């Protein structure tokens, strides 16, 4: 499931020319156009009120007004900076913790029960807790995103590091590598596919937690923007902001997939 | 790494399958498994102790982390007052109903995507865009369309569970080994029989994995919807407690949610083991 696009040979065949690829992409995404047409039709036909389903043109003009004149970019930057800080800290600490858990029995025995208890907990339940701890500012949301993203990274790293081929470990140590060098040069690299998978889950979580914490407690950020537009009845702008956030989430995942393919170039597919 | 799938690396050599069935020998000492479990239970007990006594004796700020005993007493009081079962029940009802709707729609769509070019053409771009995007952002739309009561919550949960389930089902059904399908056809199986007897069982591990991904997502979504729209349910109760700076209430909610999440996730694992009892993965 790492790549939902896998397994469609007929649509993904590499064409000989650029125009072929363009036509292919257009064909591939034509259902979206169909949906857009259906959306417009429902709105125009009067079956659904314009309030509930604003026209796409209206949404688009609201979007460009927000983009050029409004505070969409500012709020997006605020949200992304929170998500990136929390996610970055979670990846650094999570990878370290996962590697240590896989290498040292003591560490595993100490950390494993905590992971076992907190892994199944829906992380959004921590929103009121970070609100009590750190108030309504940036730090509470960063902590929430950090906590939410930590466990997928830890578990992914741990599983990856435990699955390393022991021959690699033995030959590295017999060539004179110290325990730390083995960890850095062999285990970390061999576990990279699993680590990257864990980080991808964490990336998705960071977006979910970013948006939902901003819905509940915030004074700025895209989630706050969406909910205040909704409260103010500015529905075309609200739809525009929602589609924008969804698009960012999608783009982030695509970028991440490209990055991890690059990082894993050495692997025989 | 494929040929070494059996070998257990690093510090975990104890669990290697070679040693799993040892020749019976006199028990000289306590087995390492027992030590492991003992240490891990001890870690939990020590943490709970630090929580309780740290808060009680002022090392931790009792507002930021109220003593465990106070939290447990609060849960007990609420249990007697009858709010705990109502809140937990409502949360569980919304999460499971939304999840079930997502599964009932998602699994057939995933199967059809793997089997029919038209369905695949239509759903493939939707799923590839919908799978990675943060579904929770659509919550205000569902509130606008379906009001703030159970309907919009359940639809939101179903919407966020749908994508992981479809993606996993599709991936599971489109990478099937063709030999069993061919031999079933040779034996004269009809398409319907093929579906129930071959495709579904073969794709079942991946479908179940998709469900196991979707259920926690559904719980996260349920809690957020409850926090945002208020009303009964664990999320609503917690955010109310948070707004009134009632930290004992917040932590009472956290403890309940941890228990709920633990029970739900573990029962799904049990169900998976039961359904896949025939599968090689259960022999591990």
From TrEMBL, chain A:
**What Pfam families does this protein map onto?**
BPD_transp_1
**Keywords of this entry:** Cell membrane, Membrane, Transmembrane, Transmembrane helix, Transport
Specify the ABC transmembrane type-1 domain's residue ranges. 76-256
Q: Which GO terms describe its cellular component?
A: plasma membrane
Q: Which residues cross the membrane?
A: 18-39, 59-77, 84-105, 195-217, 237-257
Q: Name one GO biological process term.
A: transmembrane transport
Question: What topology in the membrane does the UniProt record assign?
Answer: Multi-pass membrane protein
Q: What is this protein called?
A: ABC transporter permease
From TrEMBL, chain B:
Q: Which InterPro entries match?
A: MetI-like, MetI-like_sf
User: Which locations, inside or outside the cell, does it occupy?
Assistant: Cell membrane
Report keywords, A-Z. Answer: Cell membrane, Membrane, Transmembrane, Transmembrane helix, Transport
Write down the Gene3D superfamilies for this protein, in alphabetical order.
MetI-like (1.10.3720.10)
Top-rank taxon, per record:
Bacteria
Q: Name one GO cellular component term.
A: plasma membrane
- Where do transmembrane segments lie in this chain? 34-54, 92-114, 126-148, 154-173, 194-224, 244-265
Domain ABC transmembrane type-1 span(s) in chain numbering: 88-272
Which SUPFAM superfamilies would you find in this protein's record?
MetI-like (SSF161098)
Q: Which CDD domains match?
A: TM_PBP2
Q: Which Pfam families match?
A: BPD_transp_1
Q: What is this protein called?
A: Taurine ABC transporter permease
């Amino acid at each position: 499931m790492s790549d939902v696009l896998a397994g469609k040979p007929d649509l993904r065949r590499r064409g000989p020319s650029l125009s072929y690829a363009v036509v292919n992409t257009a064909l591939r995404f034509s259902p979206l156009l169909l949906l857009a047409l259906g959306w417009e039709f429902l709105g125009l036909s009067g079956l659904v009120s314009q309030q509930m389903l604003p026209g796409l043109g209206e949404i688009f003009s609201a979007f460009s007004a927000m983009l050029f004149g409004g505070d969409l970019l500012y709020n997006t930057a605020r949200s992304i900076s929170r998500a990136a800080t929390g996610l970055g800290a979670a990846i650094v600490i999570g990878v370290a913790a996962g590697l240590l858990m896989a290498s040292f029995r003591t560490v595993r025995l100490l950390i494993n029960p905590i992971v076992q208890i907190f892994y199944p907990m829906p992380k959004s339940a921590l929103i009121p807790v970070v609100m009590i701890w750190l108030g309504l500012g940036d730090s509470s949301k960063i902590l929430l995103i950090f906590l939410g993203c930590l466990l997928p990274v830890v578990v992914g790293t741990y599983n990856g590091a435990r699955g390393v081929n022991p021959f690699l470990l033995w030959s590295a140590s017999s060539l004179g590598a110290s325990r730390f060098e083995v960890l850095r040069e062999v285990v970390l690299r061999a576990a990279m596919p699993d680590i990257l998978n864990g980080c991808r889950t964490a990336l998705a979580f960071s977006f979910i937690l970013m948006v939902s914490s901003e819905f509940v407690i915030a004074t700025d950020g895209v989630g706050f923007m969406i909910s205040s537009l909704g409260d103010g009845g500015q529905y075309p702008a609200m739809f525009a902001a929602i589609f924008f956030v969804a698009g960012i989430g999608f783009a982030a995942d695509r970028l991440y997939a490209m990055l991890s393919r690059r990082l894993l170039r050495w692997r025989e597919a | 790494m494929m040929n070494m799938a059996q070998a257990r690396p690093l510090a975990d050599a104890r669990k290697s399958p070679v040693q799993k069935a040892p020749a019976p020998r006199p028990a000289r000492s306590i087995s390492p498994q027992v030590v492991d479990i003992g240490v891990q239970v001890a870690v939990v007990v020590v943490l709970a102790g630090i929580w309780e006594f740290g808060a009680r004796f002022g090392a931790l700020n009792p507002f930021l982390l109220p003593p465990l005993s106070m939290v447990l007493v609060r849960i007990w009081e609420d249990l007697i007052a009858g709010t705990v079962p109502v809140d937990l029940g409502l949360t569980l009802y919304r999460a499971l109903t939304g999840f079930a709707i997502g599964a009932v729609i998602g699994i057939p769509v995933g199967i059809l995507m793997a089997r029919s070019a038209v369905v695949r053409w239509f759903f493939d771009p939707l799923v590839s865009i919908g799978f990675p995007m943060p579904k929770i952002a659509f919550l205000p739309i569902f509130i606008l369309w379906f009001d703030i009561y159970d309907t919009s919550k359940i639809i939101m949960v179903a919407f966020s569970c749908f994508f992981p389930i479809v993606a996993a089902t599709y991936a599971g059904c489109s990478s099937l080994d063709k030999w069993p399908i061919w031999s079933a056809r040779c034996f004269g199986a009809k398409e319907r029989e093929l579906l129930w007897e071959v495709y579904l069982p073969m794709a079942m591990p991946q479908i179940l994995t998709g469900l196991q991904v979707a259920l926690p997502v559904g719980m996260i979504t349920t809690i957020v919807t409850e926090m945002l729209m208020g009303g009964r349910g664990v999320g609503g109760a917690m955010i109310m407690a948070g707004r009134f700076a009632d930290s004992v209430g917040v932590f009472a909610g956290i403890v309940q949610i941890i228990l709920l999440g633990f029970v739900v996730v573990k029962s799904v694992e049990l169900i998976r083991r039961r359904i896949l009892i025939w599968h090689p993965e259960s022999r591990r």
